[in-house]
Amino acid sequence: MNQLARSPKQMGAIIQAARRRLCMNQSQLADLAGLRQETVSNIEGGLSGAKLSSIFNILAALDLEITVQTRSKSSAADIQAIF
Question: What is the pLDDT along the chain (83 residues), one digit of tens a residue?
Fold first, then answer.
């Protein structure tokens, strides 16, 4: 699964979709990641201000990782979706 996330909202949607594919609820993911369910909910909801360490813990619990690469050129519609 390769997906692009350029905003907290997009990252939250990716995390939520991965959690659901694994038939896991937020509390189960929180337990695996060593976090509170409310933290998982806030990250999935795209709220800004999440600790990077929390996101990494969630990704590890979902067996996912982040790849950093040069930003691709996007259409105006893609850029608008960030905001």
Answer: 789 999 999 999 999 999 999 999 999 999 999 999 999 999 999 999 999 999 999 999 999 999 998 988 766 566 556 55
In this prediction the pTM is: 0.83
Round to whole Å and give the CA distance between 2 and 80. Answer: 21
- Rounded CA-CA distance 10/46 in Å is 7
Q: In the CATH hierarchy, which top-level class contains the domain 8-82?
A: mainly alpha
Residue 30 CA, chain-centre distance (Å), reads 13
Q: Would residue 17 be called left, alpha or beta, if left means φ above 0 and alpha means ψ between -120 and 50 degrees?
A: alpha
* C-alpha to C-alpha distance for 19 and 25, rounded to whole angstroms: 7
